[in-house]
Amino acid sequence: MDHSLADLDTMTLTEAQALPYAERDRLLDLIIADGRHQSTEMVSYRNGLYCDYFEEDMVRMLKVRAVKILCRGTTSSGFDGVIVGESDAEQYRAAFRHIQTTLEAAGSSFQRVVTLMVFLTNMDNWPLLNDIYREFVTDTPCRAVIGTTGLAQKPLSIEIVECVAYRVTP
């Protein structure tokens, strides 16, 4: 049975948490989508890149038994310390793939990311980052991209320093 957010709002905590996992999981997607907002209706260059703010509705999150996932800072380095990719584009994709691996291991996905913060060593690559970002991120989280003069290893060109997402517990 497909419940709406209005249905969820009328349920008690016990009723909502008794819903099957798949239904609570589907409702989480609705909760996250409902929490993403823009501060103005004006169309700008940011379309498809990020939302202005996210309202974390803790009551709804509690009802579906959602858990917040905080990912560690991630670069294009593999777990062996070897940098993946020789070009900036390859490094950007590797960093996003590493975050994707972490999110999947935690039971989540990029569609459930609500906050993302990225450091770049070359802000001239802003358009390149946005193109690669769009390959991975389809639902716009709050996002910041910050230029830096260097990262932990000299050849690194990107670090995703903050990624916050959600999942539903069984």
Using the 3D structure, state the CATH architecture.
2-Layer Sandwich
- The domain count comes to 1
Q: Tell me the radius of gyration.
A: 18 Å
CATH topology: 60s Ribosomal Protein L30, Chain: A
The count of strands amounts to 7
Classified in CATH, the superfamily is RutC-like
**Mean of the pLDDT scores?**
93
Structural class: alpha+beta
Alpha carbon gap, first and last residue: 18 Å
Number of helices: 6
Binned, the helix content reads 25-40%
CATH class: Alpha Beta
What amount of the residues lies in strands? Answer: 15-25%
The SSE order reads HHHEEHEEHEHEE
Indicate the overall shape: globular
Unreliably modeled segments: none
Largest sheet: 5 strands, mixed
Key terms for this structure?
170 residues; alpha+beta; 60s Ribosomal Protein L30, Chain: A; five-stranded mixed β-sheet; two-stranded antiparallel ribbon; 6 helices; globular
Structure description:
This protein has 170 residues and is an alpha+beta fold. It has one domain: 60s Ribosomal Protein L30, Chain: A. Helix content is 36%, strand content 22%. It has six helices and seven strands; from the N terminus they run αααββαββαβαββ. Strands 3, 4, 5, 6 and 7 form a five-stranded mixed sheet that branches. It has a two-stranded antiparallel ribbon with strand order 1-2. Helix 6 (126-136) links the parallel strand 5 and strand 6 (142-147). Helix 3 (21-35) packs antiparallel against helix 4.
Topology:
Blueprint: H1 5-10, H2 13-17, H3 21-35, E1 36-37, E2 53-54, H4 58-64, E3 66-71, E4 74-75, H5 88-105, E5 113-120, H6 126-136, E6 142-147, E7 158-168
Parallel strand pairs: 5-6
Antiparallel strand pairs: 1-2, 3-7, 4-7, 5-7
Helix pairs in contact: 3-4, 5-6
